[in-house]
Write a structure and sequence with these properties.
The protein has 489 residues and is an alpha/beta fold. Helices cover 48% and strands 19% of the residues. A hairpin with a 2-residue loop joins strand 10 and strand 11. The longest helix is centred in the N-terminal third of the chain and has 32 residues. The structure holds 6-O-phosphono-alpha-D-glucopyranose (G6P). 6-O-phosphono-alpha-D-glucopyranose binds next to helix 1. One of its GO terms (biological process) is trehalose biosynthetic process. Its EC number is 2.4.1.15. In the N-terminal section; belongs to the glycosyltransferase 20 family.
Length: 489
């Protein structure tokens, strides 16, 4: 199993991310059921066949007892997953607190309301300590499973402290760190009380990657301005060594989506959906129910569109799939009720006895349903206020070879840099702008739709998740070899 089909040795890869790519449900004292969970990183790495990858991460559940921990470890091992067990209090302070209430909004340029801001400032120190502690717990598990020559690839804002913990333990370990969110302007990053600690730890990695060149540039300038370190086009000079910093835009396993469209069960879903929405254009939003996704703003823009375009009122439907996430964080709870309130109001205002303009679902769809939905969509609305990349836009494009629908895309999503030429780009804060983009998309001539779609389809097909991961890991190997050569000289 350590060799691929042509007998080449597969490189061992330890992928460390806060969340494992499976969700675990306890079915008995020593039994668990596991389900592969969706999400950007998960779908990206599922497609990587060139490595012998193991995942290390939190299983997303509290398992206080040893019997449960043992059983879960065993079940996860079959999926090549290794759990990090975090106690409830740590999860509260590290995950809900520092990660999702401090770093997440800050990295997406979103301010907290005044009262929360004060509360956050007060709890900052204890949450940061929990963050350091949790990162050390991840490092301990990595160290237990590490074998010489392994590549250790750390992911995301949850684990900014991990490269330092790993390198302190073993300076020879090959360590990469990749951020899936934006890295904000240094002016934002420097408001963070632990700004220097986080930068210094990330710099302990050999290779630091971001989705776009802008995020990489922001990181380098934060190191220059906050730490006074020298930045070069290749990275940052730190303690006599160069930490390589570069952009690696992620993609999807596009083949998986394209192939799925031919499956009988997907075809069946497609027919059902076509029947159900006959005579109406389908507009689609698929987002985690997160404030960065700009769901209320999107729905308000749709309302404005209906207000201004009476002709379309009974000829269009907006399907909004809002996948619940981080439901223990109060900001997310507030968002849920806010969205429900707006959807209810608009449906009351423009609905009839037989139909409503917005179908809103608070749940995720299975892969086949999702593919079918993408395939029947006329206009997709990806209007994040900020987004590291946004792979929903890629998934939509992959499923549109027949229909050649229009993608309306936020200029603040990383994907705007790769799919911008084929999409209609909008400022999601400007609902007038988004409303007119909707009108433009619905009225677009087939030739223009085809031209735009072809452009994006080519990109999505040729920039895959496999290629992304392969490039990152080989660049990491090269960086380490170059550094070794340099020290020998
Ligand atoms: C974003 C983050 C991921 C995270 C995912 C789901 O895409 O970049 O690291 O796993 O959201 O969020 P959750 O908090 O449920 O893991």
């Amino acid at each position: 199993e350590d060799h691929d089909v042509v007998g080449k040795y597969k490189q061992r890869l330890l992928v460390v991310a806060n969340r494992l790519p499976v969700s675990a449900n306890r079915t008995g004292e020593d039994s668990w059921s596991l389900e592969i969970s969706a999400g950007g990183l998960v779908s990206a790495l599922l497609g990587v066949k060139a490595f012998e990858a193991r995942w290390i991460g939190w299983a997303g559940v509290n398992v206080p007892d040893e019997v449960g921990q043992k059983a879960l470890t065993k079940a996860l091992a079959e999926k090549r997953c290794i759990p990090v067990f975090l106690e409830e209090e740590i999860v509260h302070q590290y995950y809900n607190g520092y990660c999702n209430n401090i770093l997440w909004p800050l990295f997406h340029y979103l301010a907290l309301p005044q009262e929360d801001r004060l509360a956050t400032t007060r709890s900052f120190q204890s949450q940061f300590l929990a963050y350091e502690k949790a990162n050390q717990m991840f490092a301990d598990v990595v160290n237990q499973h590490y074998e010489e020559g392994d590549v250790v690839w750390c992911h995301d804002y949850h684990l900014m402290f991990l490269p330092k913990c790993l390198k302190e333990h073993n300076s020879k370990m090959k360590v990469g760190w990749f951020l899936h969110t934006p890295f904000p302007s240094s002016e934002i990053h420097r408001t963070l009380p632990s700004r220097s600690e986080l930068l210094l730890s990330v710099l302990a990695a050999d290779l630091v990657g971001f989705h776009t060149y802008d995020y990489a540039r922001h990181f380098v300038s934060a190191c220059t301005r906050i730490l006074g370190l020298e930045g070069t086009p290749y990275g940052v000079e730190y303690q006599g060594k160069l930490t390589r910093v570069a952009a690696f835009p992620i993609g999807i396993d596009s083949g998986r989506f394209i192939r799925a469209l031919d499956l009988p069960q997907v075809q069946k879903h497609i027919q059902e959906l076509q029947e159900r929405f006959k005579g109406r254009k389908v507009m689609l939003g698929v987002d985690r129910l997160d404030m960065i996704k700009g769901i209320p703003q999107k729905i308000l823009a749709f309302e404005k569109f209906l207000e201004e375009n009476a002709y379309w009122r009974d000829k269009v439907v907006l399907l909004q799939i809002a996948v619940p996430t981080r439901t223990d964080v109060p900001e997310y709870q507030k968002l849920t009720s806010q969205v429900h309130e707006i959807v209810g109001r608009i449906n009351g205002r423009f609905g009839s006895l037989t139909s409503v303009p917005i179908n809103h679902l608070d749940r995720s769809l299975d892969f086949h349903e999702l593919c079918a939905l993408y395939a029947v969509t006329d206009v997709a609305l990806v209007t994040s206020l900020r987004d590291g990349m946004n792979l929903v836009s890629y998934e939509f494009v992959a499923c549109q070879e027949k229909k050649k629908g229009v993608l309306i895309l936020s200029e603040f999503a990383g994907a705007a840099q790769s799919l911008g030429a084929g999409a209609i780009l909008v400022n999601p804060w400007n609902i007038t702008d988004v409303a007119s983009a909707i009108a433009r998309a619905l009225n677009m001539e087939p030739e223009e739709r085809e031209k735009r779609h072809n452009h994006n389809f080519l990109h999505v097909k040729s920039h895959t998740a496999q290629e992304w991961a392969g490039t990152f890991v080989s660049e990491l190997n090269d960086t380490v070899i170059e550094a070794q050569l340099r020290t020998r000289q």
